[in-house]
Amino acid sequence: MLNNYFPILIFITMGLVMGVVLLGLGLGLGKILGHARPDSEKQSPFECGFEAFEDARMKFDVRYYLLAILFILFDLEIAFLFPWAVALDGISMAGFWSMMVFITELVVGFIYAWRIGALEWE
């Protein structure tokens, strides 16, 4: 029974080995070939679109959270398209049209967010 899991173990092992080797190679080549030109602007901490000169407990603009939530929402909705695209040959026309309704709702929601200015940062 464990013989069935051996290819999965090999796949995970090779993935980890390739990841470590490529990461090490990238870091090593970056140190050798890269130019280190630090200045005060590059070395300053920067996070979430705000300079780090104020209190860490300051209030953020609501638009930042709205944009983050919209990104997560649209990203998750797009993730539903991958299984559908893989199974497209095996589903019926009802499955196809139900996904077309889903995509239409996604596009309408995107247009609505665009119209009300939810994607504007300024």
**Major sheet attributes:** 2 strands, antiparallel
Side by side, the strands of the main sheet go 1-2
Computed CA radius of gyration, to the nearest angstrom? 23 Å
Q: What is the succession of H and E elements? A: HHEEHHH
CATH topology of the domain at 56-122: Methane Monooxygenase Hydroxylase, Chain G, domain 1
Secondary structural class: mainly alpha
Number of helices: 5
Number of strands: 2
Gross morphology: flat
What does this structure look like?
- With about 120 residues, the protein is mainly alpha-helical.
- It has five helices and two strands; from the N terminus they run ααββααα.
- It has a two-stranded antiparallel ribbon with strand order 1-2.
- It is flat, with a radius of gyration of 23 Å.
List keywords for this structure.
122 residues; Methane Monooxygenase Hydroxylase, Chain G, domain 1; mainly alpha; two-stranded antiparallel sheet; 5 helices
